[in-house]
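thoughts on these tokens:
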Amino acid sequence: MTAHSAGDRLELYADYVCPFCYLGTRSLAQYRETRDEPLAVEWHPFDLRSGKRNPDGSIDHDADDGKDDAYFEQAKQNVERLQDEFGVEMTQVFAGEVDSLPAQQASWYVSQEYPDRWAAFDEAIYTALWQDARDIGSPDVLASLAESVDLPVDEIRSAVDDDGLRSELEDRFRSAQRRGVSGVPTFVVDGTATSGAVPPKHLARLVEQR
């Protein structure tokens, strides 16, 4: 295993509405606490509902995505197992009615315009959804979260309604798919990827053994 390097960098593909992404970020936080040197994390947005979106961007909840009751029961069991493994409390296991696209659009804007405050905003979004069961698809909720981390509320509201930003985000989604990302969370270091809410020791191997 190589020593930790100040230049270590990890890419993370994630969708806020995915419970495994939330759990994956908890695992990542636990791994980062073990490091002597910082780990740069580059966030890439990903839309799990891209195949269910109407032309106007809304979600067709009745569209068949091949996920049946057995799938969701297995996913529920996996979420609960990982909660125990990582010591994470969640107020809900799924958030199927929540549309994460507004949150991703706001987060993408912050990552470009206020990169020093992006991590705090990212954390606030995850906490709002998975700890407080708030609707992160709501512009009012996103404005409140922006205010809580000292971001300009008016800019965040404008970002959510910006069609140009939405097009840019859709380009990012397509770019992720071209790179072979088909599910989230996906962690990538130097071209090597691992998917799923893997434990901190797996992230350590991904980052340090190369």
Remarks:
- The longest strand covers residues 9-14.
